[in-house]
Amino acid sequence: MHGKRILLGVSGGIAAYKSPDLVRRLRERGAEVQVVMTEAAQKFVTPMTFQAVSGRPVRTDLWDEAAESAMGHIELARWANLILVAPATADFLARLANGLADNLLTTLCLASEAPIAVAPAMNQAMWRHAATRANVEVLTRRGVHVLGPAEGEQACGEFGAGRMLEPLEIVERLVPILSPGGPLRGRRVLITAGPTRERIDPVRFISNRSSGRMGFAVAEAARDAGAEVVLVAGPVSLPTPSGVRRVDVESAAEMYEAVMREVGNADIYISTAAVADYRPARPADQKIKKTSDRLGIDMERTTDILAAVAALPRRPFVVGFAAETESVEQNARAKLVKKNLDMIAANEVGHDKAFDCPDNELFVLWRGGRRDLGHGPKTALARSLIAVIAEAYAQREEGAAVCDGAAAHDGARVTSA
After folding, report:
1. How far apart are CA 404 and CA 127, in angstroms?
2. Which is nearest to 232 in space by CA: 219, 214, 243, 221?
3. Is the pLDDT of residue 365 over 70?
4. Alpha-carbon dihedral sign for residues 151, 138, 383, 368
5. In sequence order, what are the residues at sequence separation of 6 or more whose Cβ sits closer than 8 angstroms to the Cβ of residue 260?
6. Active-site residue numbers?
7. What residue ranges define each of the domains in the chain, with the CATH number in brackets?
8. Please, which of 44, 76, 131, 241 could form a disulfide with 220 given CB 3.0 to 4.6 Å?
9. What is the pTM (predicted TM-score) of this model?
10. Torsion sign over Cα 70, 73, 76, 78
11. CB–CB of 367/386 below 8 Å?
12. DSSP 3-state assignment of 402?
């Protein structure tokens, strides 16, 4: 981040108390930070606080005569390498999505050609509201980077998604935005995420507790590592990560078909989805009526998507997931060998572990190797996992290049003889 010019917009939410620390973290990494505050933001933190930590006078007013005598808002818009709004309230997201320019911060966002990132912060009900979800979807399509939000206890006493990410995590997520590239630059990554639903009748289905959060976090991490990412998602209630192409499916058969359509272009395949192992053999055409005390459903195996990809003659680098309730490492290693995977990420699941939780605990296995990624937010674990995958993939590619070079040398020697 050294020498990067970041315009930090602060809108009016209680999470504004974290923003001075965010300025400090950005400056620690060598960035220049110019703070712009909305009128509401000043109700929570004073401009003097931001001036002290940024070393720059804070801009607050579009109608500042001294600054605007030289068209200061245009100057600021051109100065920035990145505009970051943290916190980004529901009100600010709505204004940005609708192209309003009624204060200095929204005007700067419209007048700048720099990348824009927002760190949402609001009550969990406001984050889940259809209007907010629609606004975020619009911003994502326009290329705005949406960082978070996190889940947890909120200032109002409620619990859920809507907390602003912590300053250090925001800073980490800005690095690939400011410096495009990364260990997977130019690579194509195909990821599956979420559960599948297998139809019993027109109104009932068999599924599992997967939320898709881990897979979506992996998709974001792969994108940030420079990859072109395709995300095949089962039925989940998660926004599409910006810059990721999403393919929605419902059943295991639909997921298999989508994966097989996309895998030919993939360099790396990461199977985080919790795909149903069995499905009803004969789904009913009409709703099954309650006519007896017992109901039997004849089940049949679904196609093993992970094994099918690993068995392709020209296969990508294949990474599986093992969610186990017991003997986690033993079962994961057996799956690694049986399905001929390049790598497998394993975790213990249960009533209060992994599913429906923002945190997870992972370790990674490959032939002759193991790495413990520890316990933490799924977003942080996803970045660690992608780093391990990128390292292993690079080693494989380097080995293949050495082998190809040796073969070419031997061929040339035989020809000349």
Report:
1. 52
2. 219
3. yes
4. positive
5. 308
6. 156
7. 5-178 (3.40.50.1950), 188-284+298-401 (3.40.50.10300)
8. 241
9. 0.64
10. negative
11. no
12. helix
